[in-house]
Design goal:
The structure holds two protein chains of two kinds. Helices cover 0% and strands 21% of the residues of chain A. Chain A has one strand at 2-4. The termini of chain A are far apart. By secondary structure, chain B is mainly beta. In chain B, 11% of the residues lie in helices and 44% in strands. Chain B is built from three helices and 17 strands. In chain B, strands 6-2-3-4-16-15-14 form a seven-stranded antiparallel beta sheet. Chain B has a five-stranded antiparallel beta sheet with strand order 5-1-7-8-9, with helices on one face. In chain B, helix 1 packs antiparallel against helix 2 (72-79). Chain B is elongated. Chain B starts with a strand and ends with a strand. Chain A binds chain B through residues 1-10, 13-14, and chain B through 38-40, 44-47, 123, 127, 130, 133, 136, 184, 186, 211-212, 229-236. Strand 1 of chain A pairs antiparallel with strand 17 (233-235) of chain B, so a sheet runs across the interface.
Amino acid sequence: PKQQSSLLKFFKPK
Amino acid sequence: MFEARMSDTTVMKRLMDAITTLIDDGSFDISSKGISLQAMDSSHVALVAMCLRNEAFDPFRCDRNLSLGIQCKQMGKILKCSANNDVMTLKAEDDGDVLNMVFESPNGDRMSEFAMKLTDIDIEQSCRDLSNFGESVTICVTKDGLKFSVKGDSSNASMKFSQNGAGDDGNDVSIDLNDPCTLTFAVKYLNHFTKAAPLSERVTLSLSNDTPLVVEYKIGDGLGHIRYYLAPKMEE
């Protein structure tokens, strides 16, 4: 099943 | 010294509504270019990025770059004390810990002043558990159109928008497609993002397989924008 990914996986905020 | 005057508080009210839906407090960066904010929600699933250019204000004065830690609910409460056509002035000293907000009626017969304490914001807040997610929506884009589908416990639903057709509410839909893509997202967040709808007549969704969704609303005629980023649901 699909799991919610974290935005941190893609980029970090400034 | 930071001082900015806005002839109509409506934009700021709508903007704060659109931000508060996702975050409790944020660091608003003030520079000579305008006001901007970038903040993630507490679960690190979505991010809101907002920019309101200096042209949205007259005058706009910023002697030194400032970072104002603002509790959004508190600011929202203060904004509710203004009438929509009030003139709003924001003021902050370079080394102060207060944001002053002044509302004046257009004919100048009423003026109210508020001083809001600024907070130190810990940008590195710890993650909360992602325990309570709502249902998922799958967004599928092909050359034929855009389809949103939701599989619930007891029912399924889908909505389709065609490239050159019109949506249910009669608004135009335009699609700029490089490659077909299908992504799944938590509906809860998309609902939060719709809080920004009063700021703009048009919303732009940008999707690419296995990357976050970008939802953008333009503010006024080139005055700025608010963008939301949402991490997709993926196979482990």
